[in-house]
Amino acid sequence: MLIGTRRGFFQITERGKQVLNKNPVKIDDNYLKQFPEFIEFQKTKRKESKQESKENEIITQQNATPWELLESSYKIIQEELGNQLLSQVKKCNSTFFERLVVQLLVEMGMVVL
Q1: Ramachandran category for residue 23: left, alpha or beta (phi over 0 → left; psi -120 to 50 → alpha)
Q2: Quick one: pLDDT band at residue 11, thresholds 50, 70, 90?
Q3: 2/38: higher pLDDT
Q4: CA dist., res. 38 & res. 33, Å (int)
Q5: Which H or E run includes 10?
Q6: Nearest to residue 76, comparing CAs of 94, 62, 61?
Q7: CA 51, 31, 8 angle in degrees (round to 5)?
Q8: Residue 96 within a domain
Q9: Average pLDDT, stretch 68-81?
Q10: Considering its fold, how many domains does the chain have in total?
């Protein structure tokens, strides 16, 4: 509904003009969720936010002690490994997932076979 013409400047699109011509009572996130462009914008915004927080974390690490750096690095590796593992599991079929859950419960001692 808006396009960036340059940094800090935006221009309304034809679709945006059509929406405004309908004189909506209120334009908020709930209203905008009906538009695929807004949903895509939110996804992009979340990705950028995660990237920015990681960059900020790296910047603050410059003043950290070696122990803090090791701890922070471990957390980052653990998070990335978890994301990769979850991605792989999501690609598998339901039978594999069921077996994985049962095996996990057995290994945790929560189920005895």
Answers
A1: left
A2: confident
A3: 38
A4: 6
A5: strand 9-12
A6: 61
A7: 45
A8: no
A9: 88
A10: 1
pLDDT the model gives residue 71: 85
Domain assignment present for residue 109? The answer is no
**Choice among 32-36, 59-63, 67-71, 91-95 with the minimum mean pLDDT:** 59-63
The per-residue b/e assignment along 47-82, b for 16 or more CB within 10 angstroms, e otherwise, is eeeeeeeeeeeeeeeeeeeeeeeeeeeeeeeeeeee
d(CA 110, CA 23): 58
Q: In residues, how long is the chain?
A: 113
CA-to-CA distance for 31 and 10, rounded, in angstroms?
A: 20
d(CA 102, CA 34) in angstroms, rounded, equals 40
Whether 26 is covered by a domain: the verdict is: yes
Tell me if 15 is assigned to some domain.
yes
Closest C-alpha among 86, 67, 68 to residue 78: 86
Domain of 16? Answer: 2-63
